[in-house]
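Figure 2 data, in text form.
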Amino acid sequence: MNLAADPWPFKPPKQMRLHGRCYTLVMLAAITLLATDLEGQARTKKKTRPRPTPTRPAPTPTPPLAAPVVSGGVVDERQIYLNGARIAWAFVDRNYQSSTGLARAHDTYQYVTLWDVASGIAATHSAHELGLITDAVYNQRTQRVLATLSTMDLFDRAAFNKSYDSKTGRMIDRSQRISSRGYGWSITDIGRLLIWLKIIAVNQPQFAAQATQIVKRQLREQRFATATELRLRLRLSTRSGSGRGLDIASGHGAHRSAYDGGASAISTPGAWCRRAS
């Protein structure tokens, strides 16, 4: 064997050379696939966009608030309270129902108690006194709510019901369904309404007759309901032959007489309550 003529005298078998070529091809294919996969991932990342974050509805804008004036290191408290009043009035104004003159007590709840009705009257009166609304707006809204109160259905034809629909002024039952009878009254709520009717009648004489008529209407209906109940009780006591029904009716009538005496004073101008100085 001539070693000088051939620097690599030992030739690998053909099978080994074939296997080596196969390994080389497999490695090249693997590298090509890996490069293709990396390139695809890079393209995907470029095309993928971040998911938009859910946006909340923009809050209802409030009236512009004036910055409290600082004089000698003392903050103007009147301006602070006025800013608070503007924010409060913005809520009432947003929930005002032009069809009835009533104002909802909540943004998403359309039913109001008689306490809420009185609060709406109080808010409108206060906003006018603070100069947040004009005379025309105040007169229109007060006129509208008094007209609604003049025609509202009464529970058992005796007193204002506990709750009403603010959009229609109709009486509702405990299940918040329109009702011709209602489900009761609240002495506290009625008392609050009477106080604000008196304040309106005293401070705005143009509404005095309308406010007084609302009170008289309720008293008139209460007398009718009481007379009907008395006749029914007397009829039942006569049929049963017992005097218990008559006793109950007499006691009830005495209570009504005392109430009527107080009511006549309430409906008299200047007797509901004293105007705050």
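Caption note: The longest strand covers residues 111-113.
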